[in-house]
Amino acid sequence: MRILSVVGARPQFVKLAPIAKALEGRAEHVIVHTGQHYDELMSDVFFQDLGIPAPDYNLGVGSGKHGEQTGAMLAGLEKVFEEAEPDVVLVYGDTNSTLAAALAAVKIHIPVAHLEAGLRSFNRRMPEEHNRVLTDHASDLLLSPTQVGMDHLASEGLAERSRMVGDVMTDVLYTVRDQLAAQGQPLPDGVTAGNFYVCTIHRPDNTDDPARLKAIVESLAALGKPVLLLAHPRLKALAETHGIDLAAGSIVLHEPLAYPQLVNAVANSAGVVTDSGGLQKEAFLLRVPCTTIRPETEWVETVELGWNVLVNGDLSRLAGAVERPAPAATDAAPYGDGHAAQRTVDALLEAFAK
Ligand code: UD1
């Protein structure tokens, strides 16, 4: 059986790592990189650090407007699928690469499996929300990380195609955390263990409007501990365009970190401030309080359990949220047990092996 994975953006490389490992010896695995993310720190280091085999194909699509970027992927992926003739195309998460791959496959009658199915923000301003909904409805097998995801799929009439497998990001996080415990890792310059916050901001709703971005940066700059701001290229480019100083006040400006260094930084931090989906969960799994600069989250369990607080319109609430005391300890495991990749491969073989 031949499984073809399509990835393109940073969070997808993280999800691919445990799947590639779990597929070893069980099925042939073809990896396609769309090239959506292309900077070394956004792409190559993840393949190296997480031991992912080099992609069999790289479309080199790069950046662009949504239609331009997604369209280029669609055309490129169709050719690759025709050549590679997979039994199933596996797509990950909610990026433009996910949607392009699902659409390219379904049009030429190749079955599609969607990993991380069923997540919803119900916020139609987010490109990821369109990508999720459209991908789920185009897919033949929906692999959901959580019960909440399963419930969303059921309410959209997709229960029969859905399987709960757990979250593969838990698998990779636990593996890397255990390796770090064995090896130790230095922290980036300018921060000391227990006395800094880890911050990422990259969502268009936070970066693209200069007044909004300026207000967020000013709130971060005024926090009472150093803020390690791991600047995504989108953030850097827009701050420069709008003349916003990203290194103001408490902010310690830094390049994006490789995955093991990121896990190490979060584990040693006093808290996380972010608009990333993955980081909200990583903070929770490492039991570090998180503050999310968004009106809602797909990872509602982190909020319900008290480990994540949402701040959006009124940024004067940010400092109080970030500096809040740690919540009550919990042994809840809404994101699985670290064996989601194994269950994903079992489900793929059961559904598509000839
Ligand atoms: C994409 C995903 C988002 C995910 C994020 C993780 C979509 C619609 N969004 O957002 O869901 O959370 O990846 O990072 O697919 N850029 C570079 N170098 C790179 C990659 C991007 O400079 O390696 C720049 C581009 O020029 C562009 C900006 O970053 O200006 C945005 O890149 P893009 O891939 O379109 O979206 P992300 O914001 O990264």
Automatic annotation (TrEMBL):
Its EC number is 5.1.3.14. One of its GO terms (molecular function) is UDP-N-acetylglucosamine 2-epimerase activity. Pfam families: Epimerase_2. Gene3D superfamilies: Glycogen Phosphorylase B. It is an enzyme of class 5 (isomerase). InterPro entries: UDP_GlcNAc_Epimerase_2_dom, WecB-like. Keywords: Isomerase. Residues 25-348 form the UDP-N-acetylglucosamine 2-epimerase domain. Belongs to the UDP-N-acetylglucosamine 2-epimerase family. This is UDP-N-acetylglucosamine 2-epimerase (Non-hydrolyzing). It comes from Arthrobacter wenxiniae. The gene is wecB.
